[in-house]
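A.,

Following up on our hallway conversation. Structure tokens first:
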């Protein structure tokens, strides 16, 4: 049974959810009415002040010259967006960085230090690529130095030791200076601690190192699986998850031994990929369609060894059965079942 604090929190959330919010046009109409009344009051007060000021402006008791009025500073708002009766004033000031182009890649070495690569895409007006850096978890950003030259594939990778690799160059001082690095000469048999797994241009899983970037393709790839998504970091226990399809079905795979072997899970929902989120021993797999719409969500409470569908669509995953036991779907519940038919 949940403790008292948890129950109170749930009841508070439920109570808030039951409060009906007024429609947006009604809010906008009331706000406009309040503004009109305020302007009317200010106009009446202004007329009274003008009457007094008009008499005082004659100043029959004085022959001194009228002093020049003090100029009022004009505000300089940022971009203003207005729609559906709502006005949003854009941010301005030193805390906002707006380089030209689009953010094409983001990587964080730790919760505070992150990097964002900004480029103009093909078909747009050309512009030089730029690199932004944050040291406060993405709250503020400033421009950092780009490598003197870079490969056509400008993959950005940040490592836990503080090194950042970008387009064949590595920096160890927060993108102030860059040094060229060599490439891996062959396949990598494992992914070591502090290294990363990345998705290569050909769909193969690659191993990246903070010393020289791309080490090469991982020797062991998930069997018969077309990978199109790789987790950005390992789990707390060192596991690496990837997603894609196998035999036309969405699938997710995990390696728990540094890339030597893979466990592959197929899912019976329609989709073109599967992406994984992990919190402790709880693993959630989201099956996505070609347009990134969610087709189904599966969950596991044993670190991803067995999955069950949630209420967001989907049928039981095809994970295969152990030697004597398997799990069968019976109207929304899981139960143990013997392969000989007994339960």
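Then the amino acids I'd put at each of the 343 positions:
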């Amino acid at each position: 049974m949940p403790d008292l604090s948890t129950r109170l929190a749930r009841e508070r959330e439920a109570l808030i959810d039951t409060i009906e919010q007024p429609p947006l046009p009604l809010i906008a109409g009331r706000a406009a009415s309040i503004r009109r009344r305020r302007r009317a009051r200010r106009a009446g007060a202004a007329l009274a002040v003008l009457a007094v000021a008009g008499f005082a402006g004659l100043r029959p008791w004085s022959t001194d010259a009228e002093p020049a009025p003090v100029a009022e500073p004009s505000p300089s708002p940022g971009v203003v967006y207005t729609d559906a009766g709502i006005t949003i004033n854009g941010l301005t000031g030193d805390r906002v960085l707006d380089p030209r182009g689009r953010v094409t890649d983001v990587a964080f070495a730790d919760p505070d230090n992150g990097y964002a690569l900004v480029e103009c895409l093909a078909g747009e007006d050309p512009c030089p690529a730029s690199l932004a850096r944050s040291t406060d978890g993405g709250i503020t950003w400033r421009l950092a130095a780009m490598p003197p030259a870079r490969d056509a594939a400008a993959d950005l990778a940040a490592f836990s030791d503080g090194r950042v690799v970008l387009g064949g160059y590595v920096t160890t001082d927060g993108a102030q200076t860059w040094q060229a690095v060599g490439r891996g000469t062959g396949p990598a048999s494992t992914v070591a601690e502090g290294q990363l797994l990345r998705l290569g241009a050909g769909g193969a899983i690659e191993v990246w190192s903070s010393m020289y970037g791309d080490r090469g393709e991982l020797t062991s790839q998930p069997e018969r699986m077309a990978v199109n998504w790789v987790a950005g970091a390992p789990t707390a226990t060192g596991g690496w998850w990837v997603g894609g399809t196998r035999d036309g079905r969405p699938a997710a795979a995990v390696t728990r031994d540094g890339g030597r072997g893979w466990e592959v899970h197929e899912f019976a929902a329609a989709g073109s990929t599967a992406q994984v989120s992990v919190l402790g021993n709880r693993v959630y797999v989201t099956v996505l369609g070609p347009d990134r719409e969610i087709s189904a969500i599966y969950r596991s409470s044993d670190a991803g060894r067995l999955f069950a569908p949630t209420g967001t669509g989907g049928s039981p995953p095809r994970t295969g059965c152990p030697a004597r036991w398997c799990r069968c779907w019976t109207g929304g519940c899981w139960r143990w079942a013997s392969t000989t038919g007994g339960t």
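Helices lie at 4-18, 24-58. Curious whether your intuition agrees with the design.

B.
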